[in-house]
Specification:
Length: 133
Amino acid sequence: EVQLVESGGGLVQAGGSLRLSCTASGLATFDHWAIGWFRQAPGKEREGVACISNSDGRIGYADSVKDRFTISSDSAKNTVYLQLNDLKPEDTAVYYCATAGIIGLESVVTTTTMLEEGWYDYWGQGTQVTVSS
């Protein structure tokens, strides 16, 4: 059974930083999977913020977080991180990670696709990030 567990959320002041973690279990080969980070603010739709393909290292970001958020992967720990810097009140949301198999699909699955929630098969429960002004 595939499971994803997010951690690292919390309350931070504007301009502060947090590092979120997404640890996966049940994936036979971590490098065969892509991981996406999404967020959902109250009253808003869930949006993709960052993604990484563990098979070929491609990374993508939403324009709203580019230059502030950094995604990285540690295959030895089956964990993907999302470093959140220069946080703004509008970053307040529940942050989710999700995964889908990408091995063999690298030439057809773009980073744009990897930022779309409909592409993913498995989801974590989410971690709350609250940014105070």
